[in-house]
Specification:
The protein has two helices and eight strands. It is mainly β and 154 residues long. The chain has one domain. A hairpin with a 4-residue loop joins strand 5 and strand 6.
């Protein structure tokens, strides 16, 4: 048995030879545990970690690259969990559309909503705006919560 396993491992090509090079624009897994920062708004300060698939490099997106991401964003007064679609336009920057669950750490307040973010690619700073509706377990007035914050990358 040991001889069979050893012979099989010796005959297998190295891992780098097994993976063909992906052409530019091919979908590939992407992840970044420190993909962005957000400041202001009721969460005050948060950091974003993302993982998903994209057609380019997540850290230095090229023009025309597209990403589908799951994002987790813990912050000082609350946190977000999002599913996001991002498209980089080139020198002009990129746009990110998110479906987001927002939870505040105090007061048992949870909201569901959507967000739009525009990032200027040169800097890479931008602005994010969103509208959220409270879930059934959120106490108090059931009005739409509008948010805006400054962003660095995702």
């Amino acid at each position: 048995m040991a001889v069979t396993v050893t012979a099989w491992l010796a005959a297998a090509p190295p891992a780098s030879a097994q993976q063909p090079a992906r052409p530019v624009g091919a979908w590939r897994p992407v992840a970044n545990p420190l993909a962005g920062w957000h400041a202001l708004g009721p969460v005050l300060l948060s950091v974003t970690a993302v993982a998903g698939f994209g057609t380019g490099d997540l850290n230095v997106p090229e023009p025309g690259t597209v990403f589908v991401l799951a994002a987790v964003e813990p912050g000082i007064h609350g946190g977000r969990a999002s599913l996001a679609f991002a498209r980089w336009l080139g020198f002009q920057g990129g746009a990110v559309v998110r479906a987001t669950a927002l939870r505040f750490w105090s007061g048992d307040r949870t909201y569901l909503g959507g967000e739009f973010q525009y990032v200027v690619s040169v800097l890479p700073i931008g602005i994010r705006i969103g509208a959220f509706r409270p879930t059934g377990d959120t106490p108090g007035v059931r009005r739409t919560l509008w948010l805006a914050d400054l962003s660095v990358m995702y």
